Each structure stands twice: as structure tokens, then as C-alpha cells.
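can u do me a favor
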């Protein structure tokens, strides 16, 4: 993995964990996440429209733009529902871990991206570290059926889907207008679901206005960095390295939200970090 791609992805990981923590603290995460999508669409409109005017819209990018809008709409809604029901330190690892497990397999089938032995070991370590963050030897069935798990799995499936779509999409359209189209489209698709929670939406803006504005800038920024990284490295490596954000989310959950003890999370974090190092060195 190139140094540039690694730096982009690690920066994205920090930003991503932070805005997810803000979403978890919201009164209604679905309304909160829709609101930050709206803010992101407004903030990135000038750059996105300028590049579309300058470069035009490549017709062969249209199927990927439509697909990423639909997949991100599912992602945002499922993530919001998962945070309504489950802990950050449970939902986040399951969602991100599902994506990082599926993407290398699907990328091999779709893009013929063959991982080196070191890269495969790195991805395996990332997956091991992710799931050790929430694994408990006692009461496993109950843990796997904990509130939010089903929505977290759906979130992970959507992550795998849009990661592969976007790997191909940004090869046809500049990442900035691409992500702007995604934000606008996903907000429109989710608008009917948000209308039914208009009271919650008003409450979020009254109580969490600053958090919405901050997360609205952070959310698209974190994924924009990933889209640029997709142009520089293999999808499996980018997605795996990005999941160092799980380390940050686990530490945030343990330190600030009372969701578990710190020591086992640090051990799991070390495993994830080792995996990211392997991926960074892989070619």
C-alpha cells in the first residue's frame, strides 16, 4: 500500500470514529445522520458543482452514482437504527468488521485484485482484532443477538457494497462531485423516513445543532479521503486500513460512554494495529 494512500486512510479513520461517536450520542440517530448528510451536501455543493461544470459528467459513471446513492441510503438508515438500539462499541465493530471481511473476497471476483500473503495476513489480523473487541466467552448467543446487531450486520453489508461500487465509480468521476451526488441523493431517498420523525428532527437541531454542523463537515470529509485512497491502492487494503477507526471507537466507548473496560480493548487495538502495519507494507 502506498504511503499516500495509508495517510489518507488513517486520517479518515480518526474523523470517522469521531462523527460516529457524535451520532451515537444523539437523541434520534436517524434524524441526526440525515441532518449531517444535508449539511455535507450544502458544504460540498460549491466544489462539486464547479468540477461538474469544468469537467462534465461522464455518462459511464451514472450507474455507479445511482448505486452508491441507494447503498448509502441503506447504510445511513441502518446505522441510525443500530445506534438507537445498541452500544457504539458493539455496533461499530460488527458493521465495520463485516465490510472488511467481505470486500477482499468480492474485490477478487470483481476487480481481480489479488492480495499478497502479507496483505492477507494483515486483513485477517484486522478482522480478528475487530471481533475480539466485542467477543465474550460467556453468553455468546445473547451477545450476538444483542440489540442493534441485526442492523449492524445490514450496515456492514451496505459498506461492502458501496466500497466496491465506489472503487469503480471514482475511476470515472472525480471524488468531490461523486461524494456530493451521493450526499444529495441519499438525503432525497431517506427524506420520506425522516418526515415521519419531524418532531425528533426539530429536537436534534435545537439540542445538537453544533454537533450536527461539526459532524456534517466531518462525515463527507472522512469518506472523501477514502475515495482518493481508492485511486491509489487496492480496495481490500483501503477498507482494512480504514478500520483502525474501530480502535478509536472502542476507546471512545470505553472511556467516555461507560461501555466496557479499557484493557481488553487496548489488546484488541494492538491486534488491529498489527494488521494495519502488515497491510501498509503489502504490495
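np, heres the sequence
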Amino acid at each position: 500500500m502506498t504511503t499516500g494512500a495509508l495517510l489518507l486512510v488513517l486520517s479518515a479513520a480518526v474523523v470517522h470514529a469521531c462523527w460516529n461517536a457524535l451520532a451515537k450520542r444523539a437523541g434520534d440517530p436517524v434524524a441526526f445522520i440525515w441532518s449531517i448528510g444535508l449539511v455535507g451536501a450544502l458544504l460540498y455543493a460549491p466544489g462539486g458543482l464547479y468540477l461538474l461544470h469544468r469537467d462534465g459528467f461522464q455518462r459511464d459513471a451514472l450507474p455507479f452514482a445511482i448505486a452508491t446513492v441507494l447503498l448509502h441510503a441503506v447504510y445511513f438508515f441502518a446505522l441510525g437504527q443500530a445506534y438507537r438500539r445498541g452500544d457504539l462499541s458493539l455496533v461499530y465493530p460488527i458493521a465495520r468488521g463485516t465490510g472488511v471481511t467481505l470486500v477482499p473476497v468480492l474485490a477478487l471476483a470483481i476487480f481481480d485484485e489479488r492480495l499478497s500473503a502479507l496483505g492477507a495476513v494483515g486483513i485477517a489480523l484486522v478482522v480478528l482484532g475487530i471481533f475480539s473487541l466485542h467477543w465474550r466467552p460467556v453468553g455468546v448467543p445473547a451477545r450476538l443477538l444483542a440489540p442493534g446487531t441485526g442492523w449492524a450486520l445490514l450496515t456492514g453489508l451496505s459498506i461492502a457494497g458501496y466500497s466496491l461500487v465506489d472503487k469503480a465509480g471514482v475511476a470515472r468521476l472525480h471524488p468531490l462531485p461523486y461524494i456530493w451526488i451521493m450526499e444529495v441523493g441519499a438525503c432525497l431517498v431517506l427524506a420520506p423516513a425522516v418526515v415521519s420523525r419531524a418532531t425528533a428532527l426539530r429536537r436534534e437541531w435545537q439540542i445538537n445543532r453544533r454537533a450536527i454542523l461539526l459532524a456534517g463537515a466531518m462525515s463527507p470529509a472522512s469518506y472523501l479521503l477514502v475515495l482518493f485512497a481508492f485511486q491509489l491502492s487496492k480496495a481490500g487494503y483501503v477498507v482494512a486500513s480504514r478500520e483502525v477507526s474501530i480502535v478509536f471507537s472502542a476507546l471512545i466507548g470505553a472511556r467516555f460512554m461507560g461501555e466496557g473496560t479499557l484493557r481488553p480493548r487496548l489488546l484488541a487495538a494492538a491486534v488491529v494495529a498489527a494488521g494495519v502495519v502488515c497491510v501498509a507494507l503489502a504490495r
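Confidence is low (pLDDT under 50) at residues 138-142. hope that helps!!
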